[in-house]
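Hey, resending since the last one bounced:
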Amino acid sequence: MYTVLAIVAAVLFLIAWLINAAEVSTNDVFTSTNVMLIGLALLALHVAGIGSGWATRGRRR
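The structure tokens again:
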């Protein structure tokens, strides 16, 4: 559950690569560059710790 954003980012990178490699013509919103940028945003959120499930708490005694 902790790596969901990274897995989604990897899937989006794969989709972007397939769109680019197969030279599929898509509309202006669903281009390989846009899909790749969404994947990069999700990867950045994962690296930043968003969605990791960890909460910063004070020290328990």
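The first helix runs from residue 4 to 21.

Sorry for the duplicate.
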